Amino acid sequence: MSAKPAPIQRADFDQFMVPNYAPAPFIPVRGLGSRVWDQSGRELVDFAGGIAVNALGHCHPRLVEALTEQAGKLWHISNVFTNEPTLRLAKRLVDATFAERVFFCNSGAEANEAAFKLARRVAHDRFGEDKHEIISAYNSFHGRTFFTVSVAGQTKYSDGFGPKPQGITHVTYNDLAGLEAVMSDRTCAVVLEPIQGESGIRPADQAYLEGVRRLCDKHNALLIFDEVQTGVGRTGDLYAYMHHGVVPDILTSAKGIGGGFPIAAMLTTSALAAHFSVGVHGTTYGGNPLGCAVADALIEIVNTPEVLNGVKARHEIFRARLQRMGEQYGLFSEIRGRGLLIGAQLSEPWLGKAGQVLAAAEKEALMVLQAGPDVVRFAPSLVIDEADIDEGLQRFERAVARLTTQG
């Protein structure tokens, strides 16, 4: 008779896992809606949303149904063949956006990798090898592959891995004059997040995005919007570019598109997609039937006036309560963001202490995030119940009160 396996505990992470993460001291084991239960049975309210991934919360019945139904049919077939869920999802995305063609992959980094490769391929084919420069913003985040982390403007993630890819320039976000000063006929693409996520939930100005579009047109450069975090209803529009009325040439989407199932997409036009001819780029798992079935069900739900307007309404609830807390406790100086991607900027005495706020929230059975050391980030389910919002904010206020009282 075989021995019963030892129970899993948090210490196992420190013994068996590569130490590139520092997870919380508890282990979640079950989720439903916007509630999560850990190994001890403690119930937590989830304002983190898997870092803006769990767009419909945990175990949404329609997503569970889509996954289990597809799991009984076909899991993987490779890109030697196509499959029905992939084609349904591609058509849904094309019908809902500016895009005419879609490339599926597994993560935001892969989607951005594909976008950057496509931009350089288009420039190479149309203008020659000299047109290869990619311009990105300081403090941006575009993924963890060596190419994407080099394009992103945060040296803390890109330094220490040897020589970096060449032809990458960084400029200050929301500074149109600074961008104009460095753009040239060598520029093949400008990549921006409509709201910078990891660096503190910093939205782009309307005039800035409009100006970037004009500069790209002037220099025959492609405009890439990284909507890995802002996409799929997160800001109250299906994609954030729709709010601004500024249409990119390439858009990347991940995180919320699968509601927790790993899937990502690069969206573009037919003319640009033609430069990715057979064999030029690929992925083994991209466009697998399981992920596409889940994403198709999710977008069908999210891309409705009821859900998108609900995101905007929920934003107002969060903003009002967080602003009041900021005024009462002196913890926050500004509340930023759109929809359910919200950043609470810590005030001067609390700069660098976002981690302490997260720890205090966890003690009150609440899951929140940070966006850099100075910003507390909220990215809950797009359909979170108002009762859960109220309960979660009550818990957050208790954490804030305790933290500010203790100093």
From TrEMBL:
What is its pathway?
Amino-acid biosynthesis; L-arginine biosynthesis; N(2)-acetyl-L-ornithine from L-glutamate: step 4/4
Q: Where in the cell is it found?
A: Cytoplasm
How the cofactor is bound: the record states: Binds 1 pyridoxal phosphate per subunit.
> Which cofactors are reported in the record for this sequence?
pyridoxal 5'-phosphate
Q: Which CDD domains match?
A: OAT_like
InterPro entries under this entry? Ac/SucOrn_transaminase_bac, AcOrn/SuccOrn_fam, Aminotrans_3, Aminotrans_3_PPA_site, Class-III_PLP-dep_AT, PyrdxlP-dep_Trfase, PyrdxlP-dep_Trfase_major, PyrdxlP-dep_Trfase_small
Could you tell me the EC number(s) of this protein? 2.6.1.11
Catalytic activity field: N(2)-acetyl-L-ornithine + 2-oxoglutarate = N-acetyl-L-glutamate 5-semialdehyde + L-glutamate
Q: Which UniProt keywords apply?
A: Amino-acid biosynthesis, Aminotransferase, Arginine biosynthesis, Cytoplasm, Pyridoxal phosphate, Transferase
PROSITE patterns xrefs: AA_TRANSFER_CLASS_3
Q: Which residues carry this modification: N6-(pyridoxal phosphate)lysine?
A: 255
Q: Name the positions where pyridoxal 5'-phosphate binds.
A: 108-109, 141, 226-229, 284
For this record, an example GO cellular component is:
cytoplasm
Quaternary assembly = Homodimer.
- What other remark does the UniProt record contain for this protein? May also have succinyldiaminopimelate aminotransferase activity, thus carrying out the corresponding step in lysine biosynthesis.
According to UniProt, the name of this protein is Acetylornithine aminotransferase
